C-alpha cells in the first residue's frame, strides 16, 4: 500500500489559512471545523497522545464557553470571555504548529522552503524560528531539573525572584546555542551559493493539492 506524505508547505498553508479565516468569523462551527482538520493531521502523523491532550484542553475551553453566560456581569466576565474565545481559536493553529515543530525534520523544511525561491536569509530565519520553540522547551526542563537538584523552586508568590532564577541561565544557554547554531551552519555550508541537494522528496503532489483545496473549502465555506 502506498504511503502518503504531507509536504511541509501544505502544513504551513493550512496554518496560515486558519488564523485568516477565524479572524473574520465569530462562528463556533468554524472553530470546531478547524479543530477537526487539525485532529485529522495529528492522526495522519500517528500522534494520538498529543491529539488526546489537545482534545481535552479544547473540550475544557468549549465547556467554559458554553456556560460562561452564567458568570456575573462585569469587566472580569468580559476579560474571561475574551481569553477563553482566543484560546479556542488558537488551539487548532497550535496543533498544526506542533507537527511542524516535532514531526518535520529541519532539512525537510529547509528543502521545501527552497522550492519557493525565497531569499536565503528569510528561509534560514523561518527554519531557526521553527526550531527555537522545541529547543526552548528542552532548555526550560533542563533548568527546572537543575533548580530542583539545588532545592530552588519557582513560585507564583515570588514572580520577580522566579523570573531571575529562570531568565539568567536561559540567557546564558541562548548565547551558547547561538554559537553552536552558527558553527553547525558553517559546517553544513550554509554560506555556499550552490543550490542545496536533499534526500527528501518535497515536491507538491496531488495529495497535497487535495488537502489544501479540501481545507480551504471546509473553512472558507463557513464564511459564505
From TrEMBL:
Its main location: membrane. InterPro entries: ABC/ECF_trnsptr_transmembrane, ECF_transporter_component. The keyword Transmembrane applies. The chain crosses the membrane at residues 12-45, 51-70, 82-102. Pfam families: CbiQ (PF02361). One of its GO terms (cellular component) is plasma membrane. The keyword Ribonucleoprotein does not apply. It comes from the Bacteria. Keywords: Cell membrane, Membrane, Transmembrane, Transmembrane helix. Coiled coil: none annotated. It is a multi-pass membrane protein. It is found in: Membrane. This is Energy-coupling factor transport system permease protein.
Amino acid at each position: 500500500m502506498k504511503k502518503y506524505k504531507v509536504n511541509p508547505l501544505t502544513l504551513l498553508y493550512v496554518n496560515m489559512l486558519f488564523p485568516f479565516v477565524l479572524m473574520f468569523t465569530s462562528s463556533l462551527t468554524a472553530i470546531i471545523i478547524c479543530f477537526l482538520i487539525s485532529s485529522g493531521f495529528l492522526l495522519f502523523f500517528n500522534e494520538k497522545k498529543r491529539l488526546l491532550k489537545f482534545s481535552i484542553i479544547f473540550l475544557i475551553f468549549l465547556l467554559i464557553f458554553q456556560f460562561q453566560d452564567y458568570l456575573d456581569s462585569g469587566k472580569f466576565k468580559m476579560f474571561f470571555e475574551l481569553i477563553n474565545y482566543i484560546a479556542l481559536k488558537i488551539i487548532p493553529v497550535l496543533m498544526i504548529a506542533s507537527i511542524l515543530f516535532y514531526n518535520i525534520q529541519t532539512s525537510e523544511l529547509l528543502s521545501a522552503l527552497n522550492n519557493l525561491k525565497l531569499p536565503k536569509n528569510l528561509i534560514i530565519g523561518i527554519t531557526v524560528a521553527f526550531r527555537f520553540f522545541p529547543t526552548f522547551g528542552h532548555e526550560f526542563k533542563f533548568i527546572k531539573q537543575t533548580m530542583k537538584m539545588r532545592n530552588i523552586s519557582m513560585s507564583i508568590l515570588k514572580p520577580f525572584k522566579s523570573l531571575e532564577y529562570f531568565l539568567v541561565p536561559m540567557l546564558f544557554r541562548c548565547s551558547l546555542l547561538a554559537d553552536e547554531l552558527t558553527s553547525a551552519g558553517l559546517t553544513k555550508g550554509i554560506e555556499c551559493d550552490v543550490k542545496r541537494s536533499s534526500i527528501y522528496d518535497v515536491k507538491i503532489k496531488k495529495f497535497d493539492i487535495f488537502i489544501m483545496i479540501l481545507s480551504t473549502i471546509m473553512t472558507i465555506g463557513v464564511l459564505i
